[in-house]
Aldehyde dehydrogenase family protein
Amino acid sequence: MTAYGHWIAGAWRAPEKGHYPVVNPATEEVVGEAPESTPAEVADAVAAARAAQDGWSRTARRERAAVLDRIADLLVERGKELVPLLQAETGATMRVASTMQVPVAADRFRRYARGAVEPDVIPLAPRAVGASALAPGGLLGAAAVRRPVGVVACITSYNFPIVNLAGKVAPALAMGNTVVAKPAPQDPLCCLELGPILREAGLPDGVFNVVTGSGPAAGEALVTHPGVDMVSFTGSSAVGKKIAETAGRSLKRTLMELGGKGAAVILEDADDKVIRSAIGAVGSVWSFHSGQVCTAPTRVLVHRSLYERVVAGLKHYAESLTVGDPVDNSTIVGPVISAAQRDRVEAHVAAARAEGARIVTGGTRPPVRPGFYVAPTLIADATPSMIVAREELFGPVVVAMPFDTDDEAVRIANGTAYGLYDYVFSGDTARAWALAARLRSGNVGINTVQRHPETPFGGFKESGTGRDGGSFGLAAYSELQSVVWPS
């Protein structure tokens, strides 16, 4: 078992306050020890990033691209070492850990290696400007140029720690920013392992730093530090609001990817093929990382004519899934991240039962010991006002509700505080396209839960502010500077 230090200015730093244990959600055993942060250590990490920022921002873009490419290569090479650690600290199944964690992180660094050399100048047509008291008249040329924001605090979520961090760090570095990362307290170890990998790839010392902590103190110190220019956060809407409030006092740039309560709307024109696709898509709430995905379609809104058929199909799907040890290749549903999260999900299910909803399957703790397991649960006949139909649970729970008209479906879908990712399943894609325009959601999937990697990603309402993804990520981590000159 390894006791890690902070990664600051290209070297390990022993923590002043010692360490805290990182627990495997499947075995309840300690995987490793992460460092506790003091405000002074966070300040040191910010100072290192600030000192390195000017040099990195003036590094040739092709050189920055080469470093990001080497990072991707090293992640692929070290995959066999990283995957077991990542699997152990997250509790993800081996299928998810080996295919959707390290390889996707490598892909993101590779994507922004290309992004580092994308054009960053938008030329503007010359304009004739008349003389004024300010200056003589003439023909003026101009351009809008993307410039680095500066020092970026990257605060990440526990569900996909290394992927989420790569999605922030890669575009930030491509644009010439420097980074102080603060991973989620539950599973920060692989994020700490990135430090030496990025240094080996040729990233200058201080450009990437990592601090951790078991509570909110490290994140609070990072967000409030005057040397931080931007905060990029992925996590709950409640924490996002606090960060936005704090960052707003010094007008820090923020990028917020927050909670979701995705609705999958199944219209009455769905044929057998579309219905099967919809059931598989909604079933991903159970089969993919135990529902710990902010984009998951955790509400399924079904036209009343198809409702019982879809509920029966989802029940069959849920009951076919193997719950158990995530290291076993036959396992589909592993644990949630912690005992506290398991208890929270169970409490929401119990409340739904008490409010009169029908627990179609699941709803009781599976007989798997040790570990923090929640059975795939389907709740039917919920009402839109029930907490289980409004709040993000972040667990393997689906809530089914019928509707009679498109207007009613839209009203239910839009009836939560969230607006991150919704889905429409229909035999008429033109109709689905029109319905998508009425959904107050940053993303809409039509007859699919697949994501296009180049689309802008973010949410409406309390699901966040700003957009990243593809070239939009370069814009997210840059400021626009206008440059004007006489022609």
